[in-house]
Write a structure and sequence with these properties.
By secondary structure, the chain is α+β, with helices and mostly antiparallel strands. Helices cover 22% and strands 26% of the residues. The strands form three sheets. The chain has a six-stranded antiparallel sheet. Strands 7-9-10 form a three-stranded antiparallel sheet. A two-stranded antiparallel sheet has the order 8-11. β3 and β4 form a beta hairpin. The longest helix is centred in the last third of the chain and has 20 residues. 35% of the residues are buried.
Length: 210
């Protein structure tokens, strides 16, 4: 994901096709998915999927929904990568790694668009490290130290669970406001290219909406 996030989005959008081409999102504000998640707003569209803010009506909380784009979902390899991200990210529980909740499949009314897979995840309010560096320039040693320490802690937790991220970069590091005079909370995201040490990825089945 290369372009800066939408204001307050808290997640990293991927590159859009062109600046002039309008983005036609799969879902609109107010859409109800799986009789549980009401879409609040579209955040971004990228190479593989789309990102939304939604309200979990069961738990009464705001979450992020990450979908896989319909034209890409027809490719099994893309589906496997999408499901693998869920599986591997859930193996690691750490405050510096984005929490992944579950995988769902939304089936619209018969005769409309096909099923859409999406994952529910922690809604992050902040900016990417990449965006911060572009806007503010290089970090001082004092400012960089707590950020680097938290990134290292996140990767250490993943490695302890035998997970290698394989796509660790400034676009996949979120900085969240932790309050006045406090270092930002760092959250590592996007385990789509991650790999499980010593084992082939085990692809789980979709959780279907009942």
């Amino acid at each position: 994901m290369d372009s800066p996030p939408a204001p307050g989005s808290g997640h990293t959008p991927e590159s859009n096709p062109t600046r002039s081409a309008p983005i036609v999102a799969t879902f609109r504000a107010g859409d109800l998915l799986c009789d549980r998640f009401r879409v609040v707003r579209f955040i971004a569209r990228g190479g593989m999927g789309e990102l939304y803010e939604a309200e979990d009506l069961t738990l009464g909380e705001r979450v992020a929904l990450k979908t896989i784009r319909p034209e890409i979902a027809v490719h099994e390899r893309a589906n496997q990568r999408f499901r693998r991200e869920v599986q591997l990210a859930r193996k690691v529980t750490h405050p510096n790694i984005c929490r992944i909740f579950d995988l769902f499949e939304h089936r619209p009314p018969e005769g409309t668009a096909g099923a859409v897979s999406f994952v529910t995840m922690e809604l992050l309010q902040g900016e990417t490290l990449s965006q911060h560096l572009r806007e503010h320039g290089p970090l001082s040693v004092e400012d960089a130290r707590p950020i680097v320490q938290q990134m290292a802690a996140a990767l250490s937790a993943a490695h302890a669970a035998d997970v290698i991220h394989r796509d660790f970069k400034t676009n996949n590091v979120m900085l969240l406001d932790a309050g006045p005079s406090r270092a930002p909370r760092v959250v590592v995201t996007d385990f789509g290219l991650a790999h499980l040490i010593g084992d082939a990825p085990i692809i789980p089945r979709h959780l279907r909406c009942q």
